[in-house]
Amino acid sequence: MSVQKIILYPDPVLKKVCRPVRDLDEEILGLIRDLVDTMRSGPGSVGVAAPQIGITLRVCVVDVSGSKLGKNSNHGLLVMVNPEIIESDGTAVMREGCMSVPDYTGDVERATGVTIRFTDENNRVRVLETSGFEAVAVQHEMDHLDGLLFLDRISSLKTGLFRRKNYK
Amino acid sequence: MQERAERSVHFAVTIIGKDSPGIVAGAAEVLYKLGCNIEDSSCTMLGGEFAMILIVSHNKPFSKTRLLEDFRAFEEKLHLSVFVRSLSSDEVHYRVPEGELCMVSVYGSDRPGIVFRVTNELAERNISISDLNTKLIGTPEQPVYVMMIEAVLPRGLEIEEVGKMLKKLKKELNVEISVRSVTPVSL
Q: Taking the domain B101-181, which CATH number applies?
């Protein structure tokens, strides 16, 4: 159980398609704890996917309950093993940034609502509907499991810098 | 990221001229052959003109004159105007402003003063414009002006207040004005 270092692009692990998890064994439970700890340690972080800490397995965590945009509509901590989107609707554009691609942001179009199916940390299969910022975060983290970064989805040339950035 | 030499030099290069294929490639070739890095750049069509603004750097000091000389053949061949400005270190090492980022859309029947009045209102409140573009659309009989502004609000100023503060202007200029947050989400 520990906070892991976030892997930055151009590490090739971020472009790998991750393997599905077979059994929710001790190793996977340890990975889940690492993901949650890593997410909690990042200021303002609302999600982390396994490849971002170097593990190419289909596991990610999301929790938008502490964020300004997600605090009024969320499912708390979501631990998602082998998540799939089974339905999606609507589209909206949000300017996204990613811990693995520091200092850059871009407009990304995503579904406004997604229904997801996944196995949770207690080995239960869950299906739930999510919307708003939580849905965006879920889609962003799930993209990591397919080796996709938000850079692959930028929908307009309007890009920007994170406020924390100091020029070079 | 490559280590940048302490003594690297920076220039702002502006290139503008009648649009034709090959302008970007031509400019990039000149810079590449000189060993310059294109750090930040923004290039777009404005009317029938193609406009490029680039921040370029070089690891070893060399003169602005050298840069202009190497651009000359390209400039003449494609009928472009190239301007170069040397950047001081405080222009290169700047702080990105903190505060909410907002998008302001302004549109309506064209009339003089739209850009001035709206941006003046923002300037008076210390709101810093980070990006702006305008376009004249519609028909000659009914020209419509569209302006999109991305601006950084000073710390403590809420988006709602900006909307309220532009309400009066909206009435006076008889244009539509809407304001919304585009502050990036960190995922």
A: 3.30.70.260
Tally of structural domains, chain A: 1
Domain limits, chain B: 9-92, 101-181
Residues of A in contact with B186 (CB under 8 A): 44-46, 97-99, 162
With tokens 């299906």, the residue in question is: A127
C-alpha distances out from residue A132 to A67, A139, A154, B140, Å: 12, 11, 18, 42
CATH of region B9-92: 3.30.70.260
Task: Count contacts between A and B (CB, < 8 Å).
Answer: 64
How high is the ipTM of this complex? 0.74
For B118-134, how does the pLDDT look when each residue is reduced to its tens digit (9 = 90+)?
999 999 999 999 999 99
Full-model pTM: 0.82
Alpha-carbon A114 to chain mean position? 14
**Residue A31, token pair as written in the block:** 């990975």
pLDDT digits (tens, 9 = 90+) for B54-102: 999 999 888 999 999 999 999 999 999 999 999 998 888 877 777 889 9
Query: CB of B131 within 8 Å of any CB in chain A?
Result: yes
Q: What is the pLDDT of residue B2?
A: 45
